[in-house]
Design goal:
By secondary structure, the chain is an all-alpha fold. The protein has seven helices and two strands, in the order ααββααααα. α1 packs antiparallel against α5 and α3 packs antiparallel against α4.
Length: about 160
């Protein structure tokens, strides 16, 4: 009789590029951002206020709609920019935009009566913004190659070529 040993395989845990982490986190942020607004329509009185031309304390106007579109478009564009910008510009852009969205996100709690609903939505959005800042802040750096580290500097090479 053979005694079978259970086989335990270790799952492969591949490194996820920072660009993919940033794009995925911005995508998650946008889902929360949109769904909090969509679910807000179920709050009593919200639809009536919209039909009467008010959102929160603001009059519905082209200016309001353009501002709202801009506030949504920036994180949407960050998904694409996180995948396409060069590393240095990518890091700076993500740090800047995520930091600017912290007060914008916190502002959404002002004057709201459904604090559990908005509190949860805002807390989750702030966690995602913190992750974006962390991923961008800790962006891995590459070590200089051995050839560059041990080879002559540019000025020495230029001087030798001129001679």
């Amino acid at each position: 009789m053979t005694n079978r040993q259970p086989t335990t395989a270790t799952l492969e845990d591949q490194r996820i590029p920072v660009r993919a982490k940033l794009a995925a986190t911005w995508t998650s942020f946008m889902f929360l951002y949109a769904y909090v607004d969509i679910l807000n329509f179920f709050t009593p009185g919200v639809i009536d206020d919209i039909l009467n031309g008010k959102v929160f304390e603001f009059d519905l106007s082209q200016t309001f709609s353009t501002t709202a579109l801009t506030l949504v478009a920036i994180p949407i564009l960050m998904v694409v920019l996180s995948m396409t910008l060069p590393a240095r510009a990518n890091r700076i852009t993500n740090l800047t935009v995520a930091s600017l969205y912290v007060p914008v996100t916190a502002f959404n709690a002002v004057g709201e009566s459904w604090l559990y609903f908005y509190g949860l939505g805002i807390a989750l959005e702030l966690i995602l913004l913190a992750l974006i800042v962390r991923y961008a802040w800790t962006w891995p750096r590459t070590a200089p190659s051995a050839a560059l580290a041990t080879g002559p500097d540019r000025e020495t090479v230029r001087a030798q070529r001129r001679a």
